[in-house]
Design goal:
The complex is a heterodimer of chains A (331) and B (125). Chain A is α+β, with helices and mostly antiparallel strands and 331 residues long. Chain A has two domains: 203 residues, T-fold (Roll), CATH 3.10.520.10; 97 residues, ApbE-like superfamily (T-fold, Orthogonal Bundle). In chain A, 34% of the residues lie in helices and 26% in strands. In chain A, helix 4 runs parallel beside helix 8 and helix 7 packs antiparallel against helix 8. The longest helix of chain A is centred in the first third of the chain and has 22 residues. The N and C termini of chain A lie far apart (47 Å). Chain B folds into two domains: 33 residues; 75 residues, N-utilization substance G protein NusG, insert domain (mini-chromosome maintenance (MCM) complex, domain 2), CATH 2.60.320. Chain B contains three helices and eight strands. In chain B, the strands form two sheets. In chain B, strands 2-1-7-6 form a four-stranded antiparallel beta sheet, with no helix packed on it. Chain B is rod-shaped, with a radius of gyration of 24 Å. Classes of the chains: A alpha+beta (331), B alpha+beta (125). Chains A and B meet through helix 1, strand 1, strand 2, strand 7 and strand 8 of A and helix 2, strand 6, strand 7 and strand 8 of B.
């Protein structure tokens, strides 16, 4: 009897902080699934926090929707080559972060690929004419974005330029949602805006959060998860050639376009990035995917980030800092 | 005299307690793996929970969305969207899933498998 009591006490102390549990809330926004896993003992608090978070992500979606004329980003695009436009604080912050990654990656990540992105339709399975791609490539250059922080304005200097924030907005949103649920009183949780993940605090059982990395070539009996990392107060983003793609002939055409060529980058199958800032991980994952493993790892090291890259042959490349921290589930 | 001898913790006692503790830990983790918390298929329409079913019972669910009926099929612990009124059919192409989610954005339908036993808290990719 005494032994049973001891065992029970050990379990009670190991397994959970008192009364806390993980409550999941889901929502569709930014054209993806948003999941909040919140550690709390109060269903009401989880409901209040998640409502505020979902309201905020819907607001950001309206602000940055590339396909809606009334969004702030579309209005900015319509003013390209004409005049600077006053933008919201969130748009200014996001564009600034995007330009930092563009600069560090020497243009491998570039939000001015809007005119090229418009040419590719992955549902209709049509490869754009080379002449159209070349014509629009002249509009792609992040150096033609002019920021005036004092007046909160952004100017796209060339007529026809269009910025598309799809490669960084979800990561930025994940960070914003963390702040909102924290302000509401949630100290621990994990936020997933599509594949952009932000983990903060500890699980209800005092363990680290475990983030799986999707298996990029999922076949019938293969695990859906390729590997996993355990972490907290960090963000994880992955870019892969399996998200939006079609196969024509024997070639895979996917949505991660090289800003220098206008065609899908072909050095990588998937790139996962870990950093403190989820906007940075989102943009860096794209940059690393475009650059390929060698230059990608150099870039990650220069930005104190970690990463796991699968090159086009299926070989895994990994930064030194997490070499012994990745749990491989399927290779 | 005999009472004070009985109260002494011997090396044998410590070994027995340790073994039983380890057996308990192993037993709990084995039970958690072997008999996972019941996975549930949740179907949301327009961000509101519309249906919830156990994944263990095969069935077809006709889900009314803004542009028509999305058909969700549960079969042998797997779930898929088998028919949809959307134009791009991405939700159907997603195929069978045993964890995670399938979304039909045009019809605002989200099919989500909630399971508590995978050990993975979120998936990047």
């Amino acid at each position: 009897m005494l032994l049973l009591c001891i065992c029970s006490l050990i379990f009670a102390s190991c397994n959970s902080k008192q009364g806390l549990r993980e409550i999941k809330k889901t929502h569709i926004s930014m054209d993806t699934l948003v999941t909040l896993t919140l550690v709390t003992d109060s269903e009401d608090l989880a409901e209040t926090a998640s409502r505020a978070a979902f309201k905020e992500i819907d607001r950001l979606h309206i602000l940055w929707d590339f396909f809606t004329d009334s969004s702030e980003i579309s209005k900015l695009n319509m003013r390209s080559g004409i005049s600077p436009m006053k933008v919201s604080e969130d748009t200014m912050n996001l564009v600034e972060k995007a330009l930092m990654i563009s600069h560090k990656s020497k243009g491998a990540f570039d939000i001015t690929t809007g005119p090229i992105n418009e040419l590719w339709d992955f549902h209709k399975i049509i490869v754009p004419a080379e002449s159209n791609i070349k014509e629009r490539l002249r509009l792609v250059d992040y150096k033609n974005i002019e920021i005036d922080k004092d007046n909160s304005t952004i100017f796209l200097k060339k007529k026809g330029m269009k910025i598309d924030l799809g490669g960084i907005a979800k990561g930025y949103a994940a960070a914003k949602l963390e702040k909102i649920v924290a302000d509401a009183g949630i100290k621990s949780g994990i936020i997933a805006v599509g594949g952009d993940i932000r983990a903060f605090g500890m699980r209800s059982n005092n363990m680290l959060w475990k983030v799986g990395i999707k298996n990029p070539r999922l076949q019938d009996n293969a695990s859906e998860i390729m590997a996993a990392v355990s972490l907290t107060d960090r963000s994880v983003s992955t870019s892969g050639d399996y998200e939006r793609f079609f196969i024509s002939g024997s070639k895979r055409y996917h949505h991660l376009l090289d800003p220098k060529t206008g065609y899908p980058a072909d050095k990588t199958i998937c790139a996962t990035v870990i950093n403190d800032d989820s906007a940075v991980t989102d943009a860096l994952a794209t940059a690393v995917f475009i650059l390929g493993p060698e230059k990608g790892i150099e870039l990650l090291n220069s930005l104190s980030s970690e990463g796991i890259i699968m090159d086009s042959t299926g070989k895994i490349h990994i930064t030194e800092g997490i070499k012994n921290k990745v749990e491989y589930i399927y290779r | 005299m005999s009472i004070s001898t009985a109260n002494k913790t011997t090396l044998f006692d410590i070994i027995v307690i340790s073994i039983i503790t380890m057996l308990c830990i192993y037993g709990f983790s084995y039970a958690e793996k072997k008999f996972p918390a019941g996975s549930e298929v949740q179907i949301y329409v327009n961000n509101k929970l519309a249906y919830s079913f156990p994944i263990t019972i095969n069935r077809n669910i006709y889900v009314k969305g803004p542009i028509g009926d999305t058909i969700v099929e549960i079969n042998s612990g797997l779930v898929r969207v088998s028919d949809s009124p959307c134009s791009n059919k991405i939700c159907i192409q997603h195929g069978w899933i045993r964890r995670g989610s399938v979304v039909c954005l045009p019809n605002r339908v989200l099919v989500l498998i909630q399971s508590g036993s995978s050990g993975i808290d979120a998936v990047s990719g």
